Hints:
Blueprint: H1 4-26, E1 37-40, E2 43-46, H2 47-64, E3 69-73, E4 87-95, H3 97-102, E5 108-115, E6 118-126, E7 131-136, E8 141-145, E9 150-153, E10 165-169, H4 175-183, E11 188-192, H5 195-203, E12 209-213, H6 221-233, E13 237-240, E14 258-262, H7 267-285
Parallel strand pairs: 3-4, 10-11, 10-12
Antiparallel strand pairs: 1-2, 4-5, 5-6, 6-7, 7-8, 8-9, 12-14, 13-14
Helix pairs in contact: 1-2, 4-7, 5-6
Amino acid sequence: MKDIQEILAIACSVGWGAADILQSYYHGTAKNFDLEVQYKQNEPVTVADVAVSQYILEKLQASLGNEDFGYISEETYKVQAALTQELVWIIDPLDGTRDFIQKTGEYAVHIALVKEKRPILAVVAVPEAEKLYYAIKGSGAFVETRQRQSKKIQVSSRENIQDLTIVVSRSHRNERLDYLLQKLPFANQKAVGSVGCKIATIVEQNADVYISLSGKSAPKDWDIAAPELILTEAGGKYTHFDGTPLQYNTGDINQWGGLLASNGQFHEELCQQAETILAEFDKLKN
């Protein structure tokens, strides 16, 4: 089997290729261009999602094969038990489809390699920013430009909890989340699409915290696996509110409950505050 650096080089090259395909649809230059939107469990899916999913799977499988690796992609996923291979790719060909359709520019490609339920390698490409983020567990996080110049990235450090900026979702909002956001001590809020783009704002030091709550639906493995490793390797934290680590390829692709991503500084305190505020909200509602 190839070593992890070689696997990373393949994943980065695939990430840039996927970014090119998405941009060709986004800017209307793709052949037979028609961004037909269908709905799958109330979530939009476009021909771009499907084309990129196919491209990523074909490229990775051609380079790495199926023996050592399993593959879970948002567009090809069938409900199943956890894959039994030790190494499993978890892929979101287009994170932020709504933002892609609405032309906010905030969409991303997520490619993560998971071993024993935890990510060990990650690539997040943000096509409109012309940037690709990558990390190997234990080796730090980096951002690369189209010219293939890369630099190490590190989350912010702020002295006061009030100075933190929270990044919130544009489209996935509900009453519980709004209540929580009103009660938390942050002065600044920023609305950003795709989870990959939200985590990019944290590792670029333009924000410090991101919270997601599952309501009727929950974020999926492919929304979070790659961004999580980028964030934690840049010095941040991404956990359940009770502090337990996230796990992937468990047989349930939903990440239920409250999840908090941060620059790590006030992480435990914020998790506790969030749990207290939500308990208060649930009491009010019952």
